[in-house]
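Raw record, unedited: DNA ligase IV
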Amino acid sequence: MEAVVGTSKPEAKVKLIFSDSFRKSFGHASLYPLLRLLCPHLDRERTYKLKETKIAMMYVDLLGLSPMSSDGKKLLHWTDPTIVTSRAVGDFAMVLQEVMQFRTVKPRADEAPLTVKDVNAMLDTLSGQDKDAQKTVFLHIVTHCSADEQKWLVRIIIKDMKIGLRHERVLQFIHPDAVCQELTNSMVRYVPQIQPFQVFTPMLAKRVTFGDCTKAMNGNDFYMEPKLDGERITCHLQQSSSSNTTQRHMQLFSRNGVNYSDKYGPCIEAYVQAQVRPDVDCILDGEMLVWDSVEFRYHPATGLPLSARLTLLDRILKSVDHRVVRIEQTLVRSTMTAQERHDVVMADVDAKLAAGFEGMRINGWTGLILKDATSHYMCGEVSRRSQKWIKLKPDYAGMTQHLDVLVLGGYYGEGQRRGGAVSHFLLGVLQHPIDPNHVPKDIPVVSFCKVGTGYSLEELDTLRTQYDKQWHECLTLSQLNALKGQQLGQKKRAVDVVLGEQKPKKRKNDAERRRSTLDRGHVGVSIEYSQANMDIVEAQSTIFQVGLTFCVLPGKYDAKGVTKATIEQLLFANGATITQNPHPKLHDPQTTVIVAASADGVRVGNYIKQATYNVVYVDWILRCVQTQVRF
């Protein structure tokens, strides 16, 4: 696995796993045991109910560590860059490896290494056990496995391998259809058929703008129905016969193939069985609401259009309030003009918004779904690309209400991309109104929600320097509660959206326009974190041309006109090599230098704590260039 991680291209990763020598030694044996370890997130049979926090607590207990010790803190707070100062921050398995690397004994020469069979047996023992039984398994892991083996075992248990290889690539390499035991000849293709108890990805809706929503239906009749705020569930019903008796079984699957029969089945199965005709085998595709209402839709075969499937659903299913509900749909005819169809949809959106926050919450409504009445049922992403189902939400057209709230704190992220950085923000409101002329020192606040998406780095930068209001002028708890019973009061109504209108573009001020010009060509990475353009740099000297490599950290530099980019260009002009992410295996600590604006900041603080590289300030660079002497 270490070799796979160190390989960049997916094709090379797969060939490294399924090498010629492996395939020769493996022969015609089943690949299923190996695939369960290679793609653990697809293994639905083994559930451990263990995540990083529980595993960390178990290790602290088994190793006899104090929660306040250095290693105990690392395990329990593995996302905190002030505690885990290495590159492992945000990756629990790597933090565990660091903690265990000096606590494990090397295996004896006569001791056989772990095999696929051994690992699967260990995981079978761990699955479905109580805490004490699982602790016994981990005790065996701690005392018999190396630090590297424990790292990969934990990744399998938390079902996140982090090898940079998607399961689709692995399965595609094995076979174009990748159906184990059904196909042993890669020249034979499998013809997929939807049938009960066979997991599939349900049909998905495409996001479009309000102005284009009716045009996307291509002039066909379409059904308009509420978009509910629940979990997408397919309910499978099929009869089976045994001992002269016939019984119909039910299973519930999420859109990602997770079996929720044990979780939802006991409270809903009796109602579903009673409301669906007893002589019918079917799959109901719908939404499971988190409170007390469940709404199901039906498709018996992919060959029938939606209008025919709905007619069949009315024949076989009887609704019962708050259990199995056939939601109300509005048929918008193709005989109407384009403007009339658009007006019908926009009026329905405004009617739902008029119910206010509380009405939307009670009815579970988050938007609208438009479904082409002539559409056949399709599975997975191909259905989203077809635009036969489209979804509309008020925030797509700026019809939601803006709230002034406080950023109370943040949560550290996980993984290589977000590890060590804040990935989610905790928001709050004031508990009581305060007098702006007499702001007390201690003001009670109440947490409101947590957000982690829907904003860009540029928007965060704007928020950091936005001082149009004082922080204590934010929303209060009483004001927030009052909003529940009111209409949304949005600035824009759906009926104001013109047919064909695109999402409005924000007008840029001069500073934003200059930044946009600078950022052009830097897709995905903000320019302040990107390497400067060296093509325009002319050589000035060779003072740093002695194998020195510099990493310039972003920050606020004191000197006027000095930025990360200008420092990099200055270093490059004087013979230096520039890198963005130094690594001890790739960059010699003796010849690699970190340039920082100050000692403030988590990243520079970690470099100082690690003491792997020399850390200098920009003044040192400027003195060296001016005097042409390296101090």
